Amino acid sequence: MKPRVATVWLGGCSGCHMSFLDLDERLIELADKIELVYSPIADFKTFPHNVDVTLVEGAVTNVENEEMAHIVRKNSRFVVSFGDCATTGNVTAMRNRFSTNEIIERSYKELADISNSLPNDHTVIAQLCEQALPLHHVIRVDAFLHGCPPTPDGIWFAMNELLEGRIPVFNTQFLRYG
Questions:
Q1: Could you count the other beta carbons within 10 Å of the beta carbon of residue 28?
Q2: Is position 101 within any domain?
Q3: Domain assignment present for 102
Q4: How confident is the prediction for the chain on average, in pLDDT?
Q5: Contact 92, 61 (CB under 8 A)
Q6: How large is the average pLDDT for residues 137-150?
Q7: What span, in angstroms and rounded, lies between the C-alpha atoms of 153 and 145?
Q8: How far from the centroid of its chain's Cα atoms is residue 175's Cα?
Q9: Is residue 109 in a domain?
Q10: Which one, out of 62, 63, 134, 165, has a CA that is 20 to 30 A from the CA of 101?
Q11: Cβ 143 vs Cβ 167: under 8 Å
Q12: How many domains is the chain built from?
């Protein structure tokens, strides 16, 4: 039976998933080794049980992200902080110097083009957390894959190590493009 793999996108830019797609031909080789059971690059609706490896991109920025992080941890054997937003908060956490009220006022009133009303029931947008947090501040994480975004070579190395049951140990060759 193939290892069950998932990828999740929380508060980030999707650059880590784009870098994942930059595996190019290696995606075909990876597809032969795994069963992709959840990802924003596929049309899955609910996070499954019994996932072997989950790569989580993005910081925890709102209540939906926080809920998803707990679902991922509960249902995954290995959870990997995938990229710098997940590992440190990175660019996403730049908002932490402002209150959520200041962010909402600025976004929905001051910079509004058409309607300058504030969201009030959080059915369209998720309620923001007070701070954008790295994933390991919310759930236990088993490995960290740094980079903004991580390089395809780093992702490839990490996936192969994890599929062999090992926690990847990185050196600097995987941390930057070029």
A1: 9
A2: no
A3: no
A4: 91
A5: yes
A6: 95
A7: 11
A8: 17
A9: no
A10: 134
A11: yes
A12: 1
